[in-house]
Structures are given as structure tokens and as C-alpha cells.
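Example 3.
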Amino acid sequence: MTTLPQQTDRKLGLVIDLDTCVGCHACVISCKGWNTENYGAPLSDQDAYGSDPSGTFLNRVHSYEVQPEAGAAQLVHFPKSCLHCDDAPCVTVCPTGASYKRVEDGIVLVNESDCIGCGLCAWACPYGAREMDQAAGVMKKCTLCVDRIYNENLPEEDRQPACVRTCPAGARHFGDLSDPDSAVSQLVAERGGVDLMPEQGTKPVNKYLPPRPRDQLQTPDDSGEIDVLAPFLEPIDNGPKGFLGWLDRTLEKL
Amino acid sequence: MHPAPSVILFSSLSGLGFGLLVWLGIGLPAVTGWVAFVFFALAYLLAVGGLIASMFHLGHPERALKAFTQWRSSWLSREAWASVTALLVMAAYGAGLVFFDTRWWPLGLIGAALSLLTVLTTSMIYTQMKTVPRWHSLSTPANFLSLSIAGGALLAGQVTEAMVLIALAGAVQIVTWWQGDKALATSGTDLSTATRLGEIGNPRAFEPPHTGSNYLLREFVYVLGRKHAAKLRIIAIVLMMVLPLLLLLSPVWHHLAAALAVLSHAAGVLTARWLFFAQAEHVVGIYYGKR
Amino acid sequence: MTHSQPPLDLSPKVSDEVRKTTCYMCACRCGINVHMKKGKVAYIEGNRDHPVNQGVLCAKGSAGIMQHNSPARLRNPMKRVGPRGSGAFESISWNEALQIATDWLEPLRREAPEKLAFFTGRDQSQSFTSLWAQAFGTPNYAAHGGFCSVNMATAGIYTMGGAFWEFGQPDWDHTKLFMLFGVAEDHDSNPIKMGLGKLKKRGARVIGVNPIRTGYNAIADDWVGITPGTDGLFILSLIHCLMKAGRIDLDYLARYTDAPVLLNSDPKSPEYGLQLRDENGKALVIDRKTRKLTPFDQPGVRPDLAATYRSGGITHRPVFHQMAEQYLGEDYSPEAVAERCGIPAPRIRAIASELARVAFDEAFELDHEWTDFRGEHHKTMTGRPVSFHAMRGISAHANGFQTCRALHVLQIILGTVEVPGGFRFKPPYPKPATAHPKPHCKATPDAPLDGPHLGFVHGPDDLALKADGSPARIDKAFTWENPMSAHGLMHMVISNAHAGDPYKIDTLFLYMANMSWNSSMNPGGVMEMLTDTDENGDYVIPRIIYSDAYSSEMVAYADLILPDTTYLERHDCISLLDRPISEADAAADAIRWPVVEPNRDVRGFQSALCDLGAKLGLPGFVNEDGSQKYKDYADYITRHERRPGIGPLAGFRGEDGKDVGRGAPNPEQIDRYIENGGFFVNHIPEGATYYKPWNAAYQDWAVGMGIYDAPQPYLFSLYVEPLRRFQLAAEGHGDRQPPDHLRDRIKQTMSPLPIWYESDPEGTQGYDVHALTQRPMAMYHSWGSQNAWLRQLHGHNPLYLPTAIMREKGLRDGDWARVTSPHGGITVPVMEMAALNPKTVWTWNAIGKRKGAWALDKDAPEATKGFLLNHLIHELLPPKGDGLRWSNSDPITGQAAWFDLKVHIEKTNAPAEAQPEIPPQRSPVPPAPRDVAWKVGK
């Protein structure tokens, strides 16, 4: 049934740290590898070695430049995959019941054997989290590696999404966002995690940690504020001669 | 949005077909026998033809029957039910007219209502999309329903009604465009909310996540030049409204003029429907810095 | 409402088997778990137990399955049948291929072994390939370091016995302020990402100094968008500020560096600027307690940073005096350098203050007891939580060596090297330049070379010159033009061989180096040189043998192709004899092994060298009876001993496999490595993990591991005396004298204390914009484009222009520009970037491909829109009117100065394709499939 569950037991999801992501695409490819070999149809590529290569990926890393009012422009790498929304519009539009949200953990999945490939769920998703596979004719999306996180054939520490396991900078965190005591909820609370496109009313489970303030290391001439660092660079004496005098005095104290 | 021919054909043709069924359902024109058969055949050709066209849009048409299961939540599923019940009811009603020369009028009224409902459900598929601000408005069902009924009137040969309704549909169409052009800007969704980087400064899409193409870019990012769009809008409104009205108003009202009016109107509706998709901005484009 | 869910198998079988080996998608050498299904590679992930990557894996590594299955894989040995460059080949057997190579090489070895030039590109088996070249007897061997990063490696080793990347790492667990210099953030990539992740988790500050704010610089808390080529000036200004404020670690400088070492200060002396030494060659200092002259390393000595010493009428002053003289002057004040660096003076001060504040006011102690080389026992270890790292950007300039040196001096005066929170070496480093071999170049017919090719020179006597003073090596490494070219100069080989300067060669033998494309400056010129013929119609470079696994651009230029395997089909050792995978806390090495057997007629290149070496009868590659000594590379890895008991792999040695470091060869060693996950780790004991160059416990541990044969503590060289020896020669002292045209340059550039000089060459007037390249993190060299997954991420590359230039030239995203340099022009698409130094443009490296290469369609965007900046760069500088053509490289090491490129930009109409258009080469491999959708386990 493509109606959404009244509530889910847990809200498993990702917390993505935009202060830490270096934009390396490791998560993109690790996801591609795991999900080609696992859940559902392989993620296919068309014209793979040709003039217009195109393929199905469940995770993409955008990048944005942000120009603050003062100071240098900043660059932010921005990974994006399914946010496993509480009010997932992709689920309710599905005519066949192929799209559903799991009661146990809130993961939004596509049951590929029921998918007619109408594409409506992708239309309904504001985030571009769903991609129709051209070879299989069914909708593909992030499964939060539902076939890893509970998989008893994997060692305990590997029961996490492939993208999280592989992220070299540790910019991706996985956990239960319904539990205020979970590490991910704590992180969201500490770092002011936010929803993407809150006005769309989708209530995403995944949260984004905004970049920390940049370019704070300035002196008065730059920022017009009091130079707190100046005492650290008080000259000892001017010129090489004075320096050697200081040196002698200081060495005595050593 | 990608203007997929299958979906444009489907929504335009089935709109006209169900529009005609509405008129037939309420007994205008009050036809029976062979004449009724011709009218019903035309209506079914358009409605069913449109539905079949829409199947080409599916990745797995062989599983289409599964689409009947989710009527509780899905407008597409509701459309499936509405269209099939409308077609079944109207088939029974039509059989009465054609074979028994009898007008089972309650059946006709129910069928007409179901036909209207079908057009409404189709329009709601688009209207519900908050992700496409241009569609997410009451003007979308108004646009679909007015065109369907007007086109139906034209097909049903209800000249006076057709003239009024075509003028009305044309007006609704213009209002739809006027509103739609502001929709994205007033939707509250932009790159700042999409990335939440607006609090730092003014964000701008930099390097795309992939240089290759993908489903999202093909499906949701269709860039139509402003000048080109303006021209197409004029063509659409002329074909859909102006030309049919002139033809209907012309003193020499005969079947050829009527046929021309129908063809012109249909071409206008197809053009407008093409624009309905081609001009629609899906918010996912924002992530790619497109539109 | 009701809610129902389909049944779902939450514990599907993951794979039949996991085989653990080492990645080869870049130089990181991460451990990978290769999941096998039905005997095929199904999925690749990082190995959690592995010291390098601890489970994580980058995009390239995760895409390894597509590299392994690339349609561009070569199928079998081939000999050229069409003209060079056409790509017309005929398949031959390995027997025939090895016979051809033997027929070509055997006479060379008998008569003039230097006529073979053997250069390997992204070779991870240099200790093996160099051994082969030594056995052959040619002096002409090197890998790709000369055009990659030799400035960085050499500056580090001369200064402090180790450098960045594979040599050392910041103390990620303790550092509080991390400063990263340089564009092109590719080396050591997963470890740096993991380290940055640790810093971010703690909220430690990261400062990025880089003209381009991408990648690591995008997440830097503070970004310093420096003008290219001025890093050295900026660093020297920081040194100026810190010294002027006395915010330097005097105790550290006195104990562990040459700052107190006495220098001859008499300008008239032939030893002016050389260190005062005792009869054993030990540098002398004044002991602060006794006020007496003493060798630096005597028990209890406290070297004096201030005292001078006069003997024989000559005053000797400590190095530190000279530093004060050099760096306290106003030439290096923030105000003096700000404009050239593109950094406001207050910002330079702010950064210097923060470095000082964190280094000294946030200093901490670790409760690790240790004893230094003078026998002094320390209860704790002092931590200075400031660390530095650098990328190729600072080194690929004509002033790169001195810039890297300056950075090390900055590290050292803050006392942040080999201390907690600072920068730490990875075994076999620390290892000072004096502990490395010197270069050897004496070629004798029918005999091996007189020693290892590459090494560290300590003065003019060590140069690789023939008796007549002409260069002994084809690449002119270790000559007056670039005396300290410790990695050789691969980028000069083709042009020198073509010019017959210093001499003609017969056979050019290359491995894994795309010299006709992205690995050369001036690829168009290189293609011409490779195909040029003499008056008889013979090729000027008579024979070219090439080994590669893939259909690269270079394949078309070979006469004989030896097809290599993919990285999952081969044996390799990542050896302590070479650049191992060690971490600061442990020595570690690793292997690759064939997790799948090749389905093509290919051989691992090193195994092919074992075969070829045997056919040529090379010493070390044949048994006494003349039979082949090593069956294949695996056999070599297992049985070869460099010194008794020391082989390519340090783990599981000895008959029973229990010996570590030193021990007899163990026939089951490779199996033991496989059981252990493909690697071996031996941890450094606590108390020996910091202060390694001076820590007696570390020195003893290193001897036990076979890294050294005896403890060899040393002082960091703020003052690099070998540089001074070259200056003295240029000033007219000594027997070996430089040619006159080089004297001034040697005097100016080879300063024993770091200096900065303009790297912008003469002849570039009118070209006012710096042009840089860097690799995207998801691609490595040219390899990524044959990968169906990775090429969707980076299938073509724009030239990124700063906002101001976009506006000035009336350009918008997607427009095209004509970009010219003194050497050539390209026409390419452009895109705006705001977070960029305003005088700099840049693009992704090696995305552009030649049509016909890499099994790509001829209309692939890599070939139609992708482009290389290489066409704008020449191995020689533009003429400056003195009748000479100066090399586009660092005058000290010869490192290719890729990043000195200056260009001019104009808007132009979009051409059909990026320019220049190079005609297609014929593909030696069948066309690639159109679509890819497979599931191995299905």
C-alpha cells in the first residue's frame, strides 16, 4: 500500500557534514558498485564508452559557490541522495504500491517487481533522488543499503550503508534520527543540522550539517575588529643585532 | 519537464474524448443508432487511443494492471479507475443508444460525471506536484477541464456552447500561463532553500555532479527559449480559440468548417499541452543550476 | 489505513569469497577487499584492517571493477606493422616478443649499454626495475619523479631526512592547527582525507594555501588564495614574523638541528660557508656548558645557538646567525611581500600569530619517556600541535626546491617536526640524504652499472659527468644544469634522445608512462620526435618498446608492445626498499596477488622482465648454469635478498615465517601475506614513536627491522651544505667547474638557506595569467576515462576562470576561449569560478584524450571537448636572447616547472571541437560495448 505508515518505529537516515565533505565522489561510486551487484536490477550505463554516456546513480555530489557579503567566495561540496522523508510524496503518488516506506525503520524503497516505470515518483521528489534505469525500466533509488544494515552475512561493523563505510573524510553518518540520544541526533543538535527545501513539506529524515564559519583568521585591517592575536607577535627587538641580544638573554633562561 | 509525446498525446486526446463523452452522456446531441455509433466511436478512439499512447510512457506496460491498486493515495491510480469505469458505463449507455435506441439517462449522467472525473484525475496528477510550481495550482484542473468540455462541445457539434466554452477555455489558458510564469519565483523554493547555504551568502551552482547526462536532466530539465515560448503561445491560442471561433462564427457554417475548427482546436490544445510540459520547471533543476 | 510491505531478504549473501589485495588506482596503495562471485570480481571495498585506508576507499578504488574489466585492456603482445603513431599492429606470441626484445637489446649490452634508455612511469616496483637496469648496465634509468614531485622529495630529504606524502604525515590525532600548501591535492589522498576528517571532528583549524579553493581547500577554515609561485615568499615572511617576535623553539633548534653548527664565515676562504668539522667529518658546535668546541653528538653536549668560534684567523658563526641575518631584514616583511603573494599583510601577520599561539601556548606533554642520542633521558615528550603538509603545487615551479625547503625550515623553527601534534615520519624515514646512495653512472660493456642510478649528491664530485665533463645520462640528470635531480628527468628523455644530446640512443624502453600525451609537456612535439626520421628514412629514435595494460595514447608509438596485466591479475610488492605503506607508528609493506587470472595473453611487466633478464643473461637474473633465476615476479619477491636477510618484503621471513625485517627467505611468504590480508605491519614501540631521528629506542628498532645497519642519528639541515659546495664551485673553487653560462644561476639559486626568487620566466611578457592543472579526486592521470563510471563524472573539462577575467573578456559559462602561451594555443570551453586567485585559471588534468585511444568512441567528449594544457607547455623556456634555450625546470633538481605556465585569454567562437585537433590513432583493441548492465552474481 503506497499510503505512508502512520509512524515508523525508527527513522534511519544519514547526516551529511558539509563542513567536512571534500567532494571526492567516493560515496557515489561505492554506492554504484554495491547497488549494481545487490538490491534489484543492476544500475546500468548507456553509451558507456561513447559520445553521450549516461547511467543510473543513486547518489550524486554537487558543488556550489557561495559568495558572502564580505570576504572570499566559498566552495561547498554537496552530496545528495534519497532523504527518506517522513512525508514522502514519492510514495503516495505511486499507482502500483511499488514505492513504500518501511514501518520498521522509515526507509523508502521501490519493490521493483511492482514498478511499472511510470516515473511519477521521480516527478514528485523535489530532490532528484530517483532515477529511472534505462535498461531495467524500473525506478531506482537509495535503499539506505537495507541489504547491508541488517545483513547477518556481514561483520557487525560493516552493517552500514556503503557510502558511509567508504567516505574517507567521515563526512557521512548513519543512524536513528528518531532517537534523540543517538550519535546522529546529537550531531544534528550540536551542529545545527538542517532540512533541505523545508518548504516542500516533505520532512526529510536525512539532515545536513552546514559548513562552519570560514575565513575568521583576520586582523584589524581586514575586519575592523580588535586584534587579539597581536600580542603573540610583539617584536623582541629590531634588526639582527637586537635579535642576537635577545637570543643570548633567552638562552640564558633555557 | 521533458515534453514526452506519449504523455502530451494521451492527455490531449483523452481530454477531448472524455469531453465528448460528457456531452454524449447528458444527451447533447441526442443521437441514436448509427449516428450515435459514429459519435461514440470517435469518443472512444480519442479516449482509449490516448490511454494506449500513455502506455508507451511506461517502463513496464505489461504490469499496467497493478496501477489499479493504489486508489486510496495515488491520483494516477484513481485516473485508471475513473477512466475504466467511465468507459464501461458509457459503453453500456452507448449500447442502449446504438442498439436499443434507448437513452438510459441515469447511466448517461453517471457516465458523464465519471468522464469529467477522469479528466479531473488526470489534471490532479500534475496539480499535486509541489515540485513543479507551475502545475501546483487550481489553474491546472481548470485548464484541463475547460479544454476538455470545450473540445467535447465542439466535437459534439454544440456550436453555441462550444463558442462560449472555447472562449472560456482560452481565457483560462491565458490566466494559467500568466500565473504559471510567476509560480517558481513565488514558490519559496530556490537554491538557498535547496542547499540551505543561503545563510552564508548567495549560492551559485558550480561544477555539476556529472558531466555525462542522466535521467534527471533528460526528464526534468528542458530549456525552452523565452522568445520561442511566446511564439508558441500565440500559435496555441490562435489555433485553440481564435481560429475555431472565427470558423464557428462564419456565416457559411458547414461540416468542413466544423471539421477545420475541430482540427485547429486539437492542434492548439496539443501545442498548449506541449508548452505545459516544456515550460514546467521542476525544482530539481535548481540543484543543477538550471532555471 | 492499512500498510503492507513486500517480503524482503535483509541478509542476502554478499559474496562467495573475499580476496584481500592492494589497490593500484593511484599512489595511495590502499588495502581492498575484492568480493568474488563465481570466480569473478563482484564488488570492491576498502580493507578495514589496512594501515593506509582503514576501510575507506575513494571513488577510483571503488570503481576498480570497471578498470579491471575495461574494454581498453591490451590482449596480447604486438609488433608494429604500420608507421609509428598510426596504431597499426600485429599480434604476436610472447616467445616472439621476448625474442625481438632480446635481439635488439643483447648487442647494445655487449657494446654500449647506455644506448638503452629504460624509464618507468607510474611504476610501483622501482627497487626491482632499477635493479634490472643496473644489471643491464645502462645509466639511463629513472621513474617519473622528475616531472612529478622531485623538488618536494629532495628538499625534504636534504633538509630533514624525509618529506611529505609517502615519507611522512601530520600527527592527525594531536594537531590543532593544520596548514596545507599547494594545488593538486592528489598524493596520499585517502590518508589526508581521513586526517582532515579527524581534525574536523575535533573542530581543529585548517588553513589552506592554494590559488584554487577546491577539494581540501574548500573545507579549510581559512583559505589563502595565494598567487602561484609565491608560496616561498609567503613562507619566508612567516619565518620573518616568527623570528622577529622570538616565537621560535630555541631548545629544539639547539638540540636537534644544525642551527648551532659553526660555518666558515670568511668570504675569502675556499671553504667559506662550509661547516666546521672534526677529523671524522662530524659537524662541530660550541657546548653551552663547557664553552668548548665539540662534535654535535657527544653525550651531554648542549649546543650553543649564539656562540662564535675563531681559529686560524677565520671566524666561524653558527648557522642560526646567518638565518637571523637573512630573514630578519625587511625584504621579507609582510608589507614587502603582500602584493606579490596576493595576500594582505595583516593576514600574513594573523597567520604567523596563530601559528605561534598554537605552537607555544597550546603546547602539551605526552607521558612517553625516551632517551636521545646524546644519552639524555626525557620524562615526557613535548607536543607542539601545529602541522604542515604540502601538495605538488608548491614544488612544480622553477623555485620549487627552495620553496619546499622554506616550508621545512618553518616547520623546524616552530619545533613541530617529529614531535607530538606536529609532522611525523613513516619508516623507513627518517633517513638523511647522507644515508642514501649517491648516483652511479659508469657504464661498462657487458657488465652491470657500478651502483644504483639515483641518489643524493653532496657536491660537484658526485655529479653524473663523463671524464670530458659531458653528461653521463641521456636525461642530463645530476649535471650542472640540475645537480640535485635525485629522481632523474624522464620528461627530458625523448627530446634529448631525438636531439642526440648528449648522445644518441638505440632503444627507448618505457613502462606505464603516457609520454605521447598527458605525461609530456608539448605532446605535439613529442609525437613528432617519436615519429621523426633521419636522411635514410630511419626513425631518429630507432626502437621503442612499451609496456602498458591499456590502450593508451603511447601504445601507438611503440614498435613492440609487452601487454601488462590489470592490478587484480598481478603480483607486486610495496616494499620497504622502495616507498612502502608505512604509517608514523608502524613500518608496513604489502603485496598484490592475482585475485583473478588474466583471460588475455598478458604478463605482469615485472615477470616479463624476469624472462627478458634471463634471456639476456643479466647477472642476478640467471643462475650459475645460465638458466632463468626467477620464474616470475612472485618468485623474485620471495627469494631476492638485497643484503643478507633483507628482501623485498619484511614480514614473515625466516624458515618458519616468524622473523621480522631480517631473516632468510621464506618460500611461503606470499601465502602468509595473503592470509594476513595482503599486508604486514610492525608497530614501533611506545617511547620510540616520536623524535625518531634522535630517539635511541627508535634507532635501535629501525636497525632490528633492517632499515639501517647501525643507528644513525643526525641533525636537521636548516643549512644544506651540499648547495653551498655547488656555489663554491660556481665561484671558482675546486677542480670540477660548471660551464660559465651556468655560474651565475648556480650562485643565485643554490643558496644553502632557503630563498625565494621569481619563477616567472623571461619571455612571457604579455602572458599575464597563471594556468594550473590538478587531478579531480575521482580520476588518476589518464586512467579514469576508460572507466564507464568515472568518465560520467568527468567526461570533459572546462577552463575555470576567475570572475574578474570572465567579466573583462565578456565570457559566460559554456563560451569558448582561445588560450595562448609563448609556446602554443588551445581553444577550449570556459566556466566561471569565484573562489579562485584573480590571476589564475585552471582545469582538470588528463581528461582530454586522443581519438582512438582508451577504447573510447571517436566522438567521446574526452576527445571532442576535453583538452590538455600540456600543449601550451614546453620543456624549454622561450628564447631570451642569449642564444641559449633554458630548460623549463627547477635549476637545482630539474623538476619540470609545469605550474610556471602563463597564458593569454581571448573570447572566441565555439569551434566544432576543442583545439588543437589531433588526428585519430587506430585502436589496437576491439570496440567497446555500447551499454553496460551486469550483475556478476546473477
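Residues 12-209 of chain A form a domain with the Alpha-Beta Plaits fold (CATH 3.30.70.20). Confidence is low (pLDDT under 50) at residues 222-226 of chain A.
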